[in-house]
Amino acid sequence: MNASPTLRKIVHIDMDAFYASVEQRDDPRLRGKPVVVAWRGARSVVCAASYEARKYGVRSAMPAVRAERLCPRAIFVPPDFPRYRAVSRQVREIFSRHTDLIEPLSLDEAYLDVTENKLGLPSATAVAKTIRDAIRGETQLTASAGIAPNKFLAKIASDWRKPDGQFVIRPHEVEAFLTPLPVGRLPGVGKVMEGKLLDLGLATVGQLRHFDPAELERRFGRWGRRLHELAQGIDEHAVVSERPTLQISAEDTFANDVLLGETVPTIRRLVEKVWSAAIKDPERIGRTVILKLKTADFRLLTRSHTPPQPPASLDELLSQSLSLLERVELPSRTRYRLVGVGLGNFRDADELPPQSQLFSSA
């Protein structure tokens, strides 16, 4: 079975328990111990967990208090993102020896299109092994790899022999590989969608493949058609090495719920983060200022404003962000658990009026 009209050689590289592994590498006392990368606190969530902690059921994005209950002996380490980014850059440099078609998904994973590779290695499998060997030798960390004709299959495959392994799905193996998988393994199928598919008697990818695609589209719209394509192993999305900036945002959860006016110091700090990120790419200009709030009872509010001219300085972005507080019309006694600031609606600089003196010094 041809998985796709366009046969590519895609590698998905996923660092193994990345943040926790960096901590264990840099502190020998943590090796072999259940390490949880998270700030302690009632509102904190787990950024990463070592494999020793995962044995107890600890997972990323889990509340830290729950992780502590599951694994009372866990060693909590606060995250050090500058250090993780430095290691990520090392890994990215290793990727670039083999291809320029690199699409990072996060600090610890990326797609690589190695249909043609710079070193002339005989196969994508050989490229993946060479990359993993270099990562081990140069960073003392391990990575897993999936090799397949397209992105979604490569991502599934990289989980198959974790940690420190690789798995290849060749074009003629796609149907046999996918058929027995639970539908929940398809990208974008969460618990809710999985339940809807189970209600239709579709528990496996093979059953989904043989279901009427028109009926899937009638029930779920374009997503239904996409599901049917995935069930056949079809994914035409190319590896995109440079994605244009669409939105930059930062948010924070308070240790204790606060009144609206008490969010101002945090908004100031978040605006500084957003502005620092925005000025790194002067060719892309954000036009819309966004404020996000979550109340103590988890109600989510967003307010946005697109001024005639984009914010041209840190002070302008701060002023416009704070002005959005005036458009929050909840009772004054309302308390908030989270605040976020964003800059969106990015455009290329040459699309904007020339009189705009953008990114002047703050």
UniProtKB/TrEMBL annotation:
Its EC number is 2.7.7.7. Binds 2 magnesium ions per subunit. The record marks Y19 as: Substrate discrimination. CDD domains: PolY_Pol_IV_kappa. Keywords: Cytoplasm, DNA damage, DNA repair, DNA replication, DNA-binding, DNA-directed DNA polymerase, Magnesium, Metal-binding, Mutator protein, Nucleotidyltransferase, Transferase. Gene3D superfamilies: 3.30.70.270, 3.40.1170.60, 5' to 3' exonuclease, C-terminal subdomain, DNA polymerase, Y-family, little finger domain. Mg(2+) binds at D14, D108. One of its GO terms (molecular function) is DNA-directed DNA polymerase activity. Its cofactor is Mg(2+). Belongs to the DNA polymerase type-Y family. Poorly processive, error-prone DNA polymerase involved in untargeted mutagenesis. Copies undamaged DNA at stalled replication forks, which arise in vivo from mismatched or misaligned primer ends. These misaligned primers can be extended by PolIV. Exhibits no 3'-5' exonuclease (proofreading) activity. May be involved in translesional synthesis, in conjunction with the beta clamp from PolIII. NCBIfam families: PRK02406.1. PANTHER family: DNA POLYMERASE KAPPA, DNA REPAIR POLYMERASE UMUC / TRANSFERASE FAMILY MEMBER. This is DNA polymerase IV. It comes from Arenimonas oryziterrae DSM 21050 = YC6267. The lineage of its organism: Bacteria, Pseudomonadati, Pseudomonadota, Gammaproteobacteria, Lysobacterales. The gene is dinB.
